[in-house]
Amino acid sequence: MKRLTKLMSVLAAGALFMGALTGCGSSKSADDTIKIGGLLEMTGGSASFGISSKNAIDLALKKVNEKGVLGGKKLALVVADNKSEASEATNGMQKLISQDKVVAVIGPNLSSAAIAAGTINNASKVASITPMGTNPDVTVDPKTKKTREYSFRTCFIDPFQGTVMANYAVKELNVKRAAILVDNTSDYAKGLSQFFKENFVKLGGAIVAEEAYLQKDTDFKATLTKIKATSPDFIYIPGYYQEVGLIVKQAREMGINVIMAGGDGWDSAKLPEIAGKEALNNTMFSSLYSPDDASDLNKAFVAEYKKAYNANPDVFAALAYDSALLVVKAIEDAQSAEPAKIAAAMAKISGFKGVSGEVTFNEQHNPIKSAVIIEHKDGVQAFKAKVNP
Questions:
Q1: pLDDT tens per residue, range 239-262
Q2: pLDDT tens digits, residue range 257-314?
Q3: Burial 88-118 (b: 16+ CB within 10 A, else e)
Q4: At a CB cut-off of 8 Å and minimum separation 6, what does 203 contact?
Q5: Which residues, 6+ apart, have CB-to-CB distance to 243 below 8 Å?
Q6: Which candidate, 232, 308, 312, places its Cα nearest to that of 267?
Q7: Environment class of residue 9 by beta-carbon count within 10 Å: exposed (0-12), middle (13-18) or buried (19+)?
Q8: Cβ–Cβ under 8 Å, residues 210 and 237
């Protein structure tokens, strides 16, 4: 019995020793990898945005991992699909932070999703940076007017984008009468609509019709009939490419041939497929980026992206690429993988040069950037104008 007890003790000690070795091995592996979250639209109505973003983030991290960070540590992207919905974005943010233990999060792209998920990462003190969430409430609490300490963005905000298109419509296109058709389920779309309207009227234009639709609507003929009856010479549609494509297609079929314009939510290779190439003639949108930008940084990025994915990068790819490199810079500036230190370093970033332009965060964690106007010519995007802040 004593021998058996002694044998069991030896075996137990050996098991503990092997367990300790295994634990050390796992710890070392974990210590050599820093996890970055990607809270992206991989499925759902805006899947094009998330796919472009993930492609670009993968490129950025692959490049960084050639040398590593913090003495050679590697970065690993952990993706959570927000399914293009605010509720799923909240769940995804919780998973990335609590289960996956990421040190920072890139995404979501949609403003409504970024606002919803922001409550989670701010409570957890983990920085998130949205490539394309343009609504002001993403980084500033509308009730307290205080900056959300752990929320950042790489894009400009809706007031600037709405103002840009209003100014361009009046001053460059000589528009007098505009109609607005807005996605009433989107904070992004409603924000652009508000600021376009305010500035268009301020410049002497008249809003002759204001109509709304809901995401996933497919038949817009009744609404377009109302708009057509008001004889606008310009229709502003601040929404996302899925519904925008159908709206443009149906408007042209109804003989509505006036200029139609929107924001960066139009920027998708899927738009010509949905609307039809010819229908998109005489349409344009404001954006933060054009692959035609002549900077050396952008030329290299476009070449790299085309080689990897056989397509030009869209604005979501460009802004996600810059977002990933901003997270890397914050880690390197902080000389730490601790989330709170990364967020503090992010807030101090100034003069960062990215493919979409230079980034210096202001006190609301917003970068001041230029906008571009992009038009469609037989389904192909073409740079039209650059508008400085």
A1: 999 999 999 999 999 999 999 999
A2: 999 999 989 988 899 999 999 999 999 999 989 898 888 999 999 999 999 999 999 9
A3: bbbbbbbbbbeeeebbbbbbbbbbbbbbbbb
A4: 166, 167, 170, 171
A5: 183, 213, 215, 216, 217, 220
A6: 312
A7: exposed
A8: no
Residue that the structure tokens 């807030």 belong to: 347
Tokens for 147? Answer: 């900056």
Name the amino acid, one letter, at 268: S
